[in-house]
């Protein structure tokens, strides 16, 4: 017996087909909100993180611009210039296609060695913290997008389904300038300065050179046995890690700097007996970076305890054999110095601390 055929005017119906269509429709209605929520998650979350990343980039760039200005002018840190530079840098950035217009800029000191550092106002008394490091000059920038700032709230394309059509967002960055703990080859002048001279010519409470009656950094001499504060000799020639006491070697080091990288803690050779002809090779009217040691009055080795910025005013040979100059605050080391050392006027490039 063959298959049943539908008669004229009748269509073939399969049992349960209409029920399946109804079940599919109900399933779609029940799962649609869930699908839209997943869509909101897939679209809005990456977009929100992209906006946050752009705000963070803007805060970082503005903080670095401000920190770079801390060493400008005659007063270091230059808080006014730093705040102005950071403020001007914010509008150079965009977030979600919106040009930023403003940020909250603060200046002060930041203890990079502390577990939970906070910005200390410039007017506050700065004391050595328990970490053993002095707080460093810093610029803090916060960039925010909210209902009335920098283009308004961040719009969420499908977030309305979750009752959140838009949201605020912000990013904060802190940039600091720090004295170095290591210098690469070629970064140092071959004179080691005695740490004891800082008691006479450096104000550790302000991290600035002491000034004379005319308001200028006090000048002093290095070499020829000049002493300060009793028995403190300001400095002597050094051949760094090589034991040498000849004019050609020192003349080459004046021109080329230290042949190898040096860090705080490294020992260098002190040699006070260089001939007077070397002083004709000393550049004048320039600022150099010198290693700082202890007990430099006799030949031998001394550990590096810091790196100092020193401006050479004159160089005197013949029977004199000494260099005159003064300390400098806020000198930006042109080579790729690194680390965090003791603040004696020289600084590495600004870096993000938070």
Helix count equals 4
Helix content: 10-25%
Number of domains: 2
Q: Which structural class do you get from the secondary structure elements?
A: alpha+beta
Largest sheet descriptor? 6 strands, mixed
Mean pLDDT: 84
Low-confidence stretches: 128-132
Q: How many beta-strand elements?
A: 25
Straight-line N-to-C gap: 87 Å
| Estimated share of beta-strand residues | 25-35%
Order of helices and strands: HHEEEEEEEEEHEEEEEEHEEEEEEEEEE
Molecular shape: elongated
Strand arrangement, major sheet: 12-21-20-18-9-15
The radius of gyration is: 33 Å
If you had to describe this structure to a student in words, what would you say it looks like?
This protein has helices spanning 17-68, 79-89, 198-201, 247-256, and strands at 94-95, 98-99, 104-110, 136-145, 154-155, 166-167, 169-176, 182-183, 191-194, 202-203, 208-209, 219-222, 227-228, 232-233, 235-237, 262-263, 267-270, 286-293, 300-303, 306-316, 322-327, 331-332, 343-344, 346-347, 351-352. The chain has 354 residues and is α+β, with helices and mostly antiparallel strands. It folds into two domains: 26-176, no CATH class; 182-340, no CATH class. The strands form nine sheets. A six-stranded mixed sheet has the order 12-21-20-18-9-15, with no helix packed on it. A four-stranded antiparallel sheet has the order 3-4-7-25, with helices on one face. β13 (227-228) and β14 (232-233) form a beta hairpin. α1 (17-68) runs antiparallel to α2. The longest helix is centred in the N-terminal third of the chain and has 52 residues, at 17-68.
